[in-house]
Amino acid sequence: MLYFFDDFSLDPDRRELRRGVAAVPVEPQVFDLLAHLIEHRDRVVSRDELIASIWGGRIVSESALSSRINAARSAVGDSGNEQRLIRTLPRKGFRFVGEVREERKRAEVATAMEMGAIEAIDAYQAAGKLPAHQATETIQNNSQARGTISVAPMRQFVFRRATVWAFAVISILGIGVVTWGYVVRSIRFERIETAAKLTHIADKIGANSREDYEAARMLRQWAVDLDPHNPNALASLTFAIVTGVLNQWSDDAATDLHTADVALQEAIQIAPESMLVGGAQCHILRAMRQFEAAIELCNQVARRFPKYPFPHKEIGYDQLMLGELDEALDEFLEADRIAPNSWLRWSWYQGIGLVYLMRGQDQEAIDWLSRAAVEAPNAGRPAAYLASAYALLGREQEARDALAHHVKLWPKTTLKNLEPTVGTAAFNSNMQRVLKGLKLAGLPDQRGDNRGPALTNGIVSHSDTGGRTARAFRRGPQPGRARSQCER
To answer: Cβ contacts of residue 398 below 8 Å, gap of 6+?
Structure first.
C-alpha cells in the first residue's frame, strides 16, 4: 500500500518517503515511527505502543522518543508548534491527523487495470472507432508486455567423459547468460512496442467525452506502467489527467493534479526540451490557475515549435480567463491557421465562439460554436454555449434543442454549477452574459427547479429533440446564414 498526504508519498515496502518525485532522507526509526502513525491514524497511538513497535519493547528515554517525533514532523514539514500532521495528546500519545489517501501499488492493480483497458479497446473496436488489427495485436502482446514470457528450457548435453561434461556445463552457463540477456532485451522491446501501441490507440480515441477520457486515461496509464521512462508516455498521461480536471470529469481534482504533476516532473527530468512535455506544462499550469505563468511558458514553447498549435490554444484560454478577449481571439485564430485540420480544432472553435458570445456578436458565436459541436458532439460545452447564443438571438426552439443535447450529456447541469469558479473578475463579468442566455434557453438554477418551460427534471418534454439536435449538429452551420469576417 502507498500512502499520499499533502504533496508527500510514503511507501512502507520500499521504505521511501517522497515529496513529489524527490526522496526525503529519514532515519530508519523515524521512518518506522511515521509509517506506524499513518497506518494507525484512525486512533491515538500510545507511547508504550510506539516503543513496543519501533524499539521492540526496549527501554527508551523520553528524550529519545521526543527526538524521533520531532524528526518525523520535520521530515513532513510539520513542527511541534503547528502539529498540523502529527498531534501530541497529553497523557495519551500521538496521532497522525493529516488527510491520507491510500492506493494499492501498480503491481496489485495491474490485472484489473489491464482488463479494463482491454475491455475499452474491445468496446471501441466493436463500435468501429478503432481498426480491428490494432486491438487484436495489442491484446496478443499483453502477456508479453507484462513480462510473463515463458522461455523454453535449453537442451541438455550429456557427455561420457567428466572433463568434457565439465566443459559442457561451463558452455551451457555461458550460453544461458547470453540467452537470458537476449530474453530480457526482448521483453523490454515488447513492453516498449506495446506501450507505443496503447498510446496510439488512446490518441485515436481522443477525450471528447467522459467515457472517452476514462478509456484514454486508462490506456495511457498502462503505457506508462510498461515504459515508465518514456517522456512522451508520461506527457500524454499528464495531458489525459489534466483534460479530465479541466472538463470536470475528475472525481478528485486535487489528487489527479498531484498525480499528473508527478508524471510531468519525471518527463521534464528525462526530456526537458520535448515539444509534448512543454505542451503538458502549459496544460497543467492552466488547471492550477496560474494563468500568467502559463502564458509565459506557452509563448516559449510556441517560439521553439512554431508548427505546434497547442500552446496558442492554451494561451487563448488563459487570456480568456484573464478577461483579455481580443488577445484570446488572436491566439485561437493562430492555432487554427497553424493546424486547420487538427482533431483538436473543436477546442479553439469553442474558444472563438465563446469570445464572440461574450462580446455580444451572437451570430458569429453560433457559426463557430456549431462547428465545435459538430467536431466534438459529446464534449457538451459547445452545445451549452450554442444554446446561450441561440436564446440571446431569440431563436427559442434551436436554443432548447442545443440545451437538450448538452443536458443529455450532463444531466446534472444547472446555472449554479456553470457559474465561473476560476478566472478574474473580468472573466466572471463576461460569463454573466453567457449565463443569461442559458437561463433564457431554459436551464434551471438547480435541479428540481422547473421554471425553464422546456425542462422537466433536466429532460426536454417535447419529442424527438435528441435525434433532431444530433442531426442538426452533424449537418453543421446551414448555408445562407451570416458568416463571420474570420470565416470569410
So the answer is: 390, 472
- Report the distance separating Cα 302 and Cα 208, nearest Å: 24
Whole-number Å distance between alpha carbons of 331 and 316: 5
pLDDT of residue 243: 87
Across the chain, what does the average pLDDT equal? 76
Span 232-255, pLDDT tens digits: 889 989 998 998 888 777 888 888
Q: Are 385 and 353 in contact (CB under 8 A)?
A: yes
Contacts for 450 with CB less than 8 Å, ≥ 6 apart? 444, 456, 457
Give the burial string for 347-377 (b: 16+ CB within 10 Å, else e).
Answer: bbbbbbbbbbbbeebbebbbbbbbbbbbbbb
Higher-pLDDT residue of 198, 40: 40
d(CA 274, CA 445): 45
| Coil/strand/helix, residue 416 | helix
Total count of residues recorded for the chain: 488
> Distance between CA atoms of 122 and 118, rounded to whole angstroms?
6
Cβ(434)–Cβ(358) under 8 Å?
yes
Helix (H, G, I), strand (E, B) or coil at 459: strand
Phi, psi of 103, deg, nearest 5 = -145, 130
Q: Is 379 helix (H, G, I), strand (E, B) or coil?
A: coil
Q: Residue 108: exposed, middle, or buried by beta-carbon count in 10 A (0-12, 13-18, 19+)?
A: exposed
Count CB-CB contacts under 10 A for residue 28.
9
pLDDT confidence band for 367 (50 / 70 / 90): very high
Amino acid (one-letter) located at 465: T
Report pTM: 0.57
Q: What percent of the chain has pLDDT over 70?
A: 70
Quick one: pLDDT band at residue 165, thresholds 50, 70, 90? very low
Select from 105, 102, 104, 93 the least CA-distant residue to 37: 93
Average pLDDT over residues 180-190: 50
Coil/strand/helix, residue 141: coil
Which three three-digit cell numbers place residue 456?
422537466
